Amino acid sequence: MAPGLHTAELSASPSGDGPVVSLPITVIRPVTDLGRNLRLEHGPKPFVSGHLERIFVTPPANTTWMKMTVTAAPEGFGSHNFVLHAVQLVPQCSYDDHNFQRHFPLAAGDTWTADTPVVPLHTLEVCLGQMWNSLGGNDVTLTVEFHGVDADNVVLSALAPTARVVRVAS
């Protein structure tokens, strides 16, 4: 099964007069293999008013941040309004703890970038849509890159006589 959102319906009817019971089935298969560069490029895809693209990806182990870059093709015209929404459902955490949403304009040839923290190994949904009231369209590419530091495996070395430890907070 290819990565993405898959839907089906299981129906039961005793006599063929129509279903008595109907059970919707939804399966989400995230992209799990991002390769060595920890990068997923989605597009270019044609966007018009109301168009929405959804991707599902699992952030690799030891990643703590995600950089999302939206790029419009240079041959388009005008500026269009977009919304980018990324969310992870993490057990024992509030929905708002891992929810990111931004509205932004994007003209032909423009690039827009945002960073947000992620929880490794928990499926992440990223949605990019052109607002319904933003007429016209353009080809758009969404790039998702993961990076981070595993704080449990950091080793500080202070062997030099002039070495000092500096606390870094984010």
Overall geometry comes to: globular
Order of helices and strands: EEEEEEEEEE
Low-confidence segments, given as residue ranges, are none
**Rg on CA atoms, Å:** 21 Å
Strand content: over 45%
- Share of helical residues: under 10%
CATH domain topology of the largest domain: Jelly Rolls
- Helical/strand content category: mainly beta
Features:
170 residues; mainly beta; Jelly Rolls; 2 domains; 4-stranded antiparallel beta sheet; globular
Structural description of this entry:
With 170 residues, the chain is mainly beta. It has two domains: 1-29, no CATH class; 31-148, Jelly Rolls (Sandwich), CATH 2.60.120.680. Helix content is 0%, strand content 49%. The chain contains no helices and ten strands. It has a four-stranded antiparallel β-sheet, with no helix packed on it. A hairpin with an 8-residue loop joins β1 and β2. The two termini are 39 Å apart. The mean pLDDT is 86.
Question: Briefly, what is this?
Answer:
The protein has 170 residues and is mainly beta. It has strands at 4-12, 21-29, 39-47, 52-57, 65-72, 79-88, 99-107, 111-117, 124-130, 138-147. The chain folds into 2 domains: 1-29, no CATH class; 31-148, GOLD domain (Jelly Rolls), CATH 2.60.120.680.
Topology (elements, then pairings):
Layout: E1 4-12, E2 21-29, E3 39-47, E4 52-57, E5 65-72, E6 79-88, E7 99-107, E8 111-117, E9 124-130, E10 138-147
Antiparallel strand pairs: 1-2, 3-10, 4-9, 5-8, 5-10, 6-7, 6-9
